[in-house]
Design a protein that fits this description.
The chain is α+β, with helices and mostly antiparallel strands. The protein has eleven helices and twelve strands. The structure holds adenosine-5'-diphosphate. Adenosine-5'-diphosphate binds next to helix 9 and helix 11.
Length: about 450
């Protein structure tokens, strides 16, 4: 490496070298001693001046370098009073402004890129051709923790395997489980130009769950519809053959056709209610809930009387911002259930009250009750504890799913307390006012 010398040293060396050469020539040329002495004195004076000038230049440059390295990028650069140095300082200052601007723009772009990549709701991982992690967004590290600097350290292992495969050249994708509780992830790794690999990771747990629910729902709905349709077909065929020979049997089978058609109509009706609840937002209006409850109770009084179940209604005036049709549907379903699962001689009490923020509807029965382990599932579509009792009393298995939907789309909720063999209490809580527009 070349030896580093200060400007002053260089200047002094040059002056001394020139002095030695000139005085040497003077001596050789027979210059008089007085002249030689004068020349030597002049060189000494010149050397001192050159040394001082060089020192000044040196300290100015050192000050600029010091400011640049030690006082941060925004500190003003010192002026030296030396025209050339100050010109250089101006150029350096301009360059600095430009570099700072570019650095800021790059920083802004990086922040923007990070914000975009994080708001995607997906994990993004970039591994370079050497297997080093070049970029990982917060979405992914927030879920799997530190991803490690090299491909060998990437967790989950399924993700590591995927990246390795893509590093070998082919695009690869996988669906795997990871985390506690386990969640389902879908990842796709693609080789980019230059051998780098870009991997995108999605959390598909909810999607998988909804797909499974949809699949179950389609299977259950088809199964539920198939039974009454089979009943109708069989009974209708029998009616045809029995029509002439056995008019009584024909009548019986025609009644069966009618029963099954009613069952079919109930299922289809409930399915339509459910899909309406799922597909649209409720139109909220001030509704007198006590009137809705009384109206629905009055509509079922006859059925209660026929079944020998006592029905009592206690309401206080409650006005809530709700969709009236939805509320009527929820009350109707809760009342039908209370009647369906209460034996003759039992009692059903409906209470409507309000707190400062909620309307509270309670339907209390002294019926068969619901086993503890079944309670979390009864709000699922087509889930029944006693399928035979439900079917024989006109149940579709959709009533509580409807009630739950009504509650949730009004920002409320429904819960149940029950004692096996002693009865159940369903409580529906609905906010009185959702004028903040949060209804969905
Ligand atoms: P269903 O049409 O079968 O009544 P629901 O969705 O309304 O369907 O209710 C689901 C299941 O919850 C019912 O099949 C029944 O087993 C149980 N259930 C609902 N309400 C009551 C209640 N009041 N008492 C006892 N069991 C009930």
């Amino acid at each position: 490496m070349a030896e580093r010398r200060s400007v002053a040293t260089v200047a002094l060396r040059w002056v001394v070298a020139i002095a030695v050469v000139v005085i040497g020539l003077g001596v050789a040329g027979g210059l008089r001693p007085a002249w030689l002495l004068g020349l030597a004195a002049a060189f000494v004076a010149f050397a001192v001046m050159a040394f001082r000038a060089a020192r000044r230049l040196e300290s100015s440059l050192t000050a600029i370098a010091g400011t640049l390295t030690e006082e941060g990028p925004n500190a003003p650069l010192p002026r030296s009073g030396i025209a050339e140095v100050d010109l250089l300082t101006d150029r350096v200052a301009e360059l600095k402004v430009r570099i700072l601007g570019q650095a800021e723009a790059a920083d802004r772009q990086q922040r923007l890129r990070d914000a975009i990549l994080d708001s995607l709701g997906e994990g993004v991982l970039l591994v370079d051709h050497g297997g080093n992690v070049a970029y990982v967004n917060e979405w992914l590290t927030g879920r799997v923790g530190d991803i490690g600097p090299v491909v060998g350290g990437i967790v989950p292992l399924a993700l590591q395997r995927l990246v390795r495969e893509a590093l070998r050249g082919g695009p690869s994708s996988d669906v795997f489980e990871f985390g506690t509780p386990p969640r389902t992830w879908e990842a796709e790794a693609k080789p980019l130009g230059g051998g780098d690999v870009l991997t995108v990771v999605r959390d598909v747990t909810e999607q998988e769950r909804t797909d499974a629910i949809r699949r179950d729902f389609a299977a259950s709905a088809s199964h539920e519809l198939k039974t009454p349709i089979a009943g109708i077909l069989a009974a209708a065929e029998t009616v045809l053959t029995a029509f002439d020979d056995d008019p009584d049997a024909a009548k019986r089978f025609a009644e069966q056709v009618l029963d099954n058609a009613h069952r079919l109509a109930s299922i289809v009706g409930d399915l339509l209610d459910l899909s309406r609840l799922e597909a649209s937002k409720p139109v909220l209006r001030p509704v007198l809930l006590d009137q809705v409850v009384e109206h629905e109770a009055a509509a079922q009084v006859e059925a209660f009387t026929e079944a020998g179940v006592d029905l009592t209604v206690h309401t206080e005036p409650v006005t809530a911002q709700v969709a009236e049709e939805d509320m009527a549907l929820a009350v109707r379903n809760l009342l039908e259930n209370a009647l369906r699962y209460t034996d003759p001689g039992g009692q059903v009490t409906v209470r409507l009250s309000a707190t400062a923020e909620h309307a509270i509807l309670e339907v209390v029965d002294t019926g068969i009750g619901i086993p503890m382990r079944e309670r979390p599932r009864i709000f699922e579509r087509f889930y029944r504890v006693d399928a035979a009792r439900s079917r024989s009393t006109g149940g579709t298995g959709l009533g509580l799913a409807i009630v739950k939907h009504v509650a949730e789309r009004h920002g409320g909720h429904v819960e149940v307390e029950s004692q096996l063999g002693r009865g159940s209490t369903f409580q529906l809580r609905i906010p009185l006012d959702r004028s903040d527009g949060t209804g969905d």
